[in-house]
Design a protein that fits this description.
heterodimer, A: 440 residues, alpha/beta, Rossmann fold, two-stranded parallel sheet, 14 helices, 13% strand, B: 355 residues, mainly alpha, two-stranded antiparallel sheet, 4 strands, globular, membrane (chain B), transmembrane helix (chain B)
Chain lengths: 440, 355
């Protein structure tokens, strides 16, 4: 057995060496993807969209200023230990090492949070991960972009306010919060308590234990409490179950608002008719009628080179979210090239500068074919969140329909919380926050 | 031939009772220790240390813990990951709340916290057996993870329940490089594994095995089942707890309660089943197998079929091959990898003239 094991290890080394090559003028991006495991279907859509966007950039523009994008996937199974292994495996590949690490898993984000600073690789966590990392002074290497959980919670309240005809009308209302009983679900508590105190509504928190495929008791409780709205802070199988059980207990789906991890086709289609009328937040929208998605179809799928096995899922919420990941990654590299030399691959440290100085305004979004597809985004040294706004989409039984414009979260509430939490982290870890006026 | 012990006379009780009575074993053991303590830090890359060797060592320790309980004392447990969580959060809280707490002491206290919790959840073992006990420990698994999320005190009021381990420092020396963390982990694991090896052949270990083989008979010959079972729970949970603390401090740095979920418990159970139930060495082999094989398959798949097959198919194939290999090994050798090594040893004894 000993011998067999040595042979195994030897073969693994050989495999590592064989794949570790890359020519110059290539920008390597390591993809810690997951295509099996409990969230395999989500991972396949997300990473599929991201890979397709990069393939489109290579096919249409010949890369970024002539630098071809290369990538390699590493299966994490949404498992922290595997994610760390992937991080270590990918970090030295390519001519300049891994450009950026985006694990699409909060657990893996936490596991490599300190390693990325040591290895000088930026970590971008769009719509998940550590919320207080939005304070770039304490977390220079982490970018929880577009919108954090807290901003989202605040934007949902603002949306409910507009539905009522003014945020002050929320006074005295009762809002139910059906949350996944985990670290992820509990992210909602502190911010909603604060907003409840500010706007004078009450929050009824109802926990659903993982995985959440049985919610009879919770919805009976909701029926007794008669909340004016229910915020669905769910995950995986919990979402369709919530919608089905709501239908069974007679709670109107018009009054349920989901977060972005509850607002994909994977959440509504399994619920069937019960999902009709349900609204969910999202920092990107669904649909193929955006130029950027059509370009992907023209340059990638028309040549049979697409990453998605099921082409019908192109244009789904999660696929488009992957495209957003692609856009942000490519734009940051482009920005870094402007400073450090066009047509040359950038290092992780240079890419970090690119992310920190990212400025995708509406004009640029139109050029990219993504106007209305994702919000405009401006990252600064202090603010690693950028946009802080979401759109709301309603499920009409077959597809998502955008029902609002971009709705901003209440930064006057969220930002102090982020800074307070980041300061506590800095104190615990002995980090001196950067002075942003000295950054270039 | 290689393993012939002819001519090795034991002339004192001390010689007769040493951990490795055969000279070849002693030499081999020292050679292995020398290799991992001296040679590996010189040649291994950061990737090998951080992503492969440290987790294998930590999971080996957890597997030893479960092996003491399941393999030696015969009490099936599905709560190993939860006891790891107790160890991690215990060590974290003592480091946080006691000024100047030495790391090794915090590690031991983390283990002791886990031992106390383990004994509490081991109490049902006095009345129930087998699968029913497994269900009781399953309760421990869910309860502990739930409690760590529910009460923010455990994670120092972190909004998401995540803790981030403090810097490891022993006598002013900061363990912050992969090599130093590896050596620290290896040292702790080596000491504890030797202690376990010694423990299972002591009176305590023999009483565990007696209870495992037939508890009524054990009681008749004067072994107290309560003490034997609860001590097995305590020692086992202590090992898991220390492994959990190392998992947080030496490996990941930041952990969340959900990281210690039922999947991890099952993984540790698979490690001892594949490695060998009732074998300290089997714990190491099993941990290496379960941690390394999926990574090896992933690397091999990329090397062989990169680009020529859909990515999703590759990931699924890995799981299929992994599962297939587990079944293959269990059919070929139901007693685990440790048993294969034992058979090899028997063969080497006669080699090259088998009869």
């Amino acid at each position: 057995m000993k011998l067999k094991h040595t042979a195994l290890i030897g073969a693994a080394v050989a495999g590592l060496l064989a794949t570790g090559h890359a020519a110059a003028q290539e920008q390597f991006i390591g993809l810690p993807s997951y295509r099996v495991g409990p969230f395999g279907a989500n991972g396949a859509s997300l990473y599929g969209g991201w890979i397709d966007y990069m393939a489109m950039i290579n096919a249409r523009d010949g890369g970024i200023n002539g630098v071809k994008l290369t990538w390699e996937e590493c299966e994490t199974e949404y498992n922290n230990a595997r994610g760390v292994e992937c991080y270590e495996r990918l970090k030295t590949k390519g001519a300049t090492g891994n450009t950026v690490f985006q694990p699409l898993s909060t657990g893996i984000t936490y596991s490599v949070l300190e390693k990325v600073a040591q290895d000088k690789i930026p970590m971008v966590t769009i719509g998940y991960g550590r919320t207080d990392a939005a304070d770039g002074r304490v977390f220079p290497w982490v970018f929880p972009m577009i919108s954090t959980y807290w901003t989202q919670a605040s934007a949902i309240i603002n949306y409910l306010g507009t539905k009522e005809g003014g945020i002050d009308k929320l006074k005295g209302k009762k809002i139910g919060l059906l949350y996944h009983d985990s670290a992820y679900g509990k992210e909602s508590h502190a911010i909603l308590d604060k907003l409840a105190a500010k706007h004078g509504f009450t929050v009824e928190k109802i926990a659903v234990a993982n995985p959440g495929n049985e919610q009879q008791a919770q919805w009976l409780q909701i029926r007794q409490m008669k909340p004016d709205y229910v915020i669905l802070w769910g995950w995986g199988v919990m979402n369709p179950t919530a919608l089905r059980t709501a239908a069974k207990t007679g709670y109107s789906r018009d009054k349920i608002v989901g977060v972005w991890w509850s607002g994909s086709e994977e959440d509504t289609i399994p619920a069937g008719d019960a999902a009709k009328g349900y609204t969910a937040a999202g920092f990107n929208v669904a649909g193929t009628n955006y130029p950027v998605v059509q370009e992907i179809q023209k340059h990638v799928y028309a040549k049979n080179a697409g990453n998605m096995a099921d082409k019908d899922r192109v244009g789904s919420v999660l696929y488009n979210r992957g495209v957003v990941h692609g856009i942000i990654t490519v734009e940051a590299i482009r920005k870094a090239q402007e400073k450090y030399g066009k047509g040359k691959p950038v290092t992780g440290e240079q890419a970090r500068w690119g992310f920190e100085n990212l400025d995708i305004d509406n004009a640029r979004l139109t050029q990219l074919g993504a106007a209305g597809f994702m919000p405009d985004l401006k990252i600064t040294c202090a603010d690693h969140e950028g946009a802080g706004k979401v759109k709301f989409q309603q499920w009409d039984g077959t597809k998502w329909k955008v029902v609002t414009d971009w709705i901003q979260g209440d930064q006057s509430v969220v930002r102090p919380m982020i800074e307070e939490s980041a300061a506590a982290y800095a104190k615990e870890k002995g980090i001196t926050p950067r002075d942003c006026s000295k950054e270039s | 031939m290689l393993y012939r012990e002819a001519g090795q006379f034991k002339v004192s009780y001390q010689e007769d009772q040493q951990i490795f009575p055969i000279r070849q074993d002693r030499v081999g053991f020292i050679a292995i220790l020398g290799f991992f303590f001296l040679a590996v830090p010189l040649v291994a890359s950061e990737y090998w240390l951080q992503a492969i060797l440290i987790p294998v060592l930590i999971f080996s320790l957890a597997a030893i813990g479960l092996n003491i309980l399941t393999g030696y004392a015969g009490q099936l447990s599905l709560g190993s990951a939860a006891f790891m969580a107790v160890g991690a959060f215990g060590a974290y809280n003592f480091m946080l709340r006691v000024d100047g707490m030495p790391f090794l002491v915090a590690l031991a206290i983390g283990g002791l916290c886990a031992a106390v919790v383990g004994v509490a959840f081991g109490l049902p073992s006095l009345r129930i057996k087998g699968f029913y006990l497994a269900v009781a420990t399953l309760a421990a698994q869910f309860f502990i993870v739930w409690a760590l999320v529910k009460f923010p005190w455990f994670s120092n009021n972190s909004s998401s329940g995540v803790i981030s381990a403090q810097q490891i420092e022993i006598l002013g020396f900061a363990f912050d490089t992969p090599v130093s963390k590896y050596l620290l982990t290896l040292g702790i694991v080596a000491v504890l594994a030797l202690a376990a090896k010694n423990l299972v052949r002591s009176t305590t270990g023999r009483s565990w095995m007696a209870v495992r083989d037939m508890d009524v008979a054990a009681e008749v010959i004067g072994i107290r089942p309560m003490f034997a079972k609860l001590s097995a729970f305590a020692v086992s949970s202590f090992y898991c707890g220390v492994a959990g603390a190392l998992y947080a401090y030496a490996y990941l740095g930041t952990v969340e309660p959900e990281g210690f979920n039922l999947d991890l418990s099952f993984k540790i159970l698979f490690m001892i089943i594949i490695g060998g139930v009732g074998s300290i060495m089997g714990s190491f082999l099993g941990a290496a197998f379960i941690v390394l094989l999926p990574i090896f398959l992933n690397v091999a798949m990329h090397a062989l079929f990169a680009g020529s097959m859909p990515a999703g198919l590759g990931s699924n194939l890995e799981l299929i091959i992994f599962g297939g290999l587990i079944i293959f090994f269990l059919i070929v050798e139901p007693h685990g990898l440790a048993r294969l090594w034992q058979i090899g040893k028997e063969k080497l004894r006669l080699w090259p003239f088998p009869h």
